[in-house]
Amino acid sequence: MRSASPAFLTESGWGQVWEHGIRTVIDLTEEGSGALPAQSARPPELTALRLPLNPVDDAEFWGYWGKRLHGTPLYCKPFLDRFPDRTAKVVTAIAHAEPGGVLVHCSAGRDRTGIIALVLLAFAGVAADEIIADHELSHDRLRPLFDRLGWPDQEPLIDEALAQHSTTRVEALSAALDSFHAAAHLRSGGCTDHDLAALRARLLA
Description:
By secondary structure, this protein is an alpha/beta fold.
């Protein structure tokens, strides 16, 4: 399950997460990276992993892609091309998580989490247009979160950045998925055949 940050969940909300079958929560954010509250109400029986996805330590990549185009679909393809090890690490954790559901989140649930969702859906054989449609669901649903945090609506900024590169969200995601082979990508990042078999069994159970 991909999600925005569960930081606002109350004890009751976390109880519903548990009742829904979630047993592992994977956080893709860096320590202290956002303006969201700590997840203090998270029950201790949930397994919690922090696996930061953004390559903030790569000055060359982050200095261009991270500061200029992170948050837009144009970031997706260069990230996948350069950092299969990062997606493979997250996917391996999902594949070998304890029985039960796995919730993967970043701050908004669109960009970092969206990349992981794209890889998982592609690996499961979901068609590109359905993967793009899934990603598009995030845009309208994020506005209540932005309102709560007092952040401006990011959609006009994203559309402006894409227009400057003569593309759209759908076109940029289509380019990222064009000729993308999820299993080969994950193997290049360090996933073994055992990891991929475990992932397939979890996704298709």
